[in-house]
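Hey everyone, long-time lurker, first post.

I ran two proteins through the pipeline my lab uses and got sequence/structure pairs for each. Pasting them in order. The first:
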Amino acid sequence: MRIISLFEKKQIPKRMIAFRQHEKKKKISKFFIFSLIFLIILLASSFYLIFFSPIFKIKFISFEIKDYPLVKIDEQQLKNEINKILSKKFYFLNLDNIFFFPKKEIKNLLLRDQKIENFEIKRNFNREIKIKISAWKPEVVFLFLGDYFLLNKNGEIIKKISQEEVDIANLPIVENKVEKELSEISILSVFDFLKKTSNLDFKILKIEINEVNGALIYQAFTSENWKIYFDPKGDIKEQVRNLLLILKEKITDRKKLEYIDLRFSGRIFYK
């Protein structure tokens, strides 16, 4: 006769153990499947929300523009061009999305406009693109072969203008009478001469560039009907200082003055 101890561990049949393990695995599998389905739904919803939902679609394009009477930035035209870019698709994705809008393409559009000096493109999450633009300030009117152009401070062409617009510009005229490119006629030194003489009691109205025996001759026409010969490859500061000196010490009556020649260092000629 066998005596069973109260503290003896009860033996569970193997069939029952296998059944319980099967039920546990079944529960884990169901949890995994439901979790996977939830994750897929979450990712799909997030994908739709970010890429296709109107919540993140660009709603506004605003501009802050600084321009000039003859160098106008056409805001409406720019807006139309940018809207064309935003209406495109990258494969199946819309480009009018505040997260993924084609900033580089908009930047290239603005860089192609010769009237624009600099710009800044910003976005905010009110579904708005803000574009700040500064136009080039015209420094002179450049006359070449009968055509008029506005030049910026780097000596680059901003735009072509009509003869009527020359009067509106109210800028010094630089006339190139030789068949040479802007880079070959020391245009930046011409700008420097104009800048350093801008505060005098007369104005430089026009600078002509001619060629005599292979040498370029630069002559400035003043508002008092006399001329200044200068050398853009020389020391502009010294030439302007010599100009002031001779006007103060030698020339008392400028009504009869015909020209002052500053091209020779250490010597000043006038008539």
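...and the second, right after it:
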Amino acid sequence: MNVWLITGEAGLNRLTPRALLDAAAGEGVTIRPVLPERCACVMRAGALEVWEQGQRLPLPDAALSWRASTGDHNVLSFCRHLEAAGVVVVNPTEALACGRDKGATLQKVAAAGLPVPWSALAHPLAPPPVTLPVVVKEVVGAGGTGVFLCRTAAELERTLARLAQRPGESVLFQAFVTCEPVFDLKVCVVDGQVVGGIRRVARSGEWRANMAAGAKAEVWDVDPDSARLAVAACRAVGLDIGGVDLLLGPEGLLFNEVNPAPQFAEGGEQAPWIGEMCARIFQLLRARHRPLRADPEGHQQRHL
């Protein structure tokens, strides 16, 4: 089976994409990294094509989108082009678009009846009534960037004034959920099944449990309640693969965010179950892909 790994320059050096590339041969998979910014999506009557450096590329059996910046319009357009050509893309493009938008994700998860922190989408110049402290988030972001904790009315006013400089963009207001020590839970879900989990503990004095903010990660045996919530959240968003972030509030588990291109590491090393994750992903791709046919010019393509 031939698979495209849709990624970027930085992604090629990240631990999880490297694990997928390394595991492919043992799974009988020929995998090729493809960078959308280096490709042209060509459309002509009856066929959709992908060209790279002046050459037409034979379409893959399946494509796996594993790029942190899934909010990049170019990435989403590239994935939609492949889907329109009949290529199975995992995760599906519309689920990618939803998963990269924190507000849209919460709308789907809350509508499914799953527990979430109190949240509101609004323009920075028309904020809803909030209880301080409150967390304000840009709707697109990863690694703890674009996330602000406002403990006072003055801090909230300054934060909203700064965010209002981006015309037309809403921000996400969210109840501040914390515990001692500060930690969150990250669950890896593939095709409706939990593969493993990571517990991230914030460094002293930090309110965010992000690795980029100095948190430490440890392998965590996912309990049944966390597993059910993580699987249900991925189903609500439409994701085949997701890294689901959970918080522990006063009344129990809460869904926080989901990453369609998750990174799972413990102390700078891959989590021990990454091999199983890769195997399940390739199994999913095999089950989803459809046969190729040849067009009049002899190129392989799918039925449109």
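Reply from user beta_strand_b:
Welcome! Quick read of the second one: The CA atoms of residues 6 and 65 lie 5 Å apart. The chain has seven helices and 20 strands.
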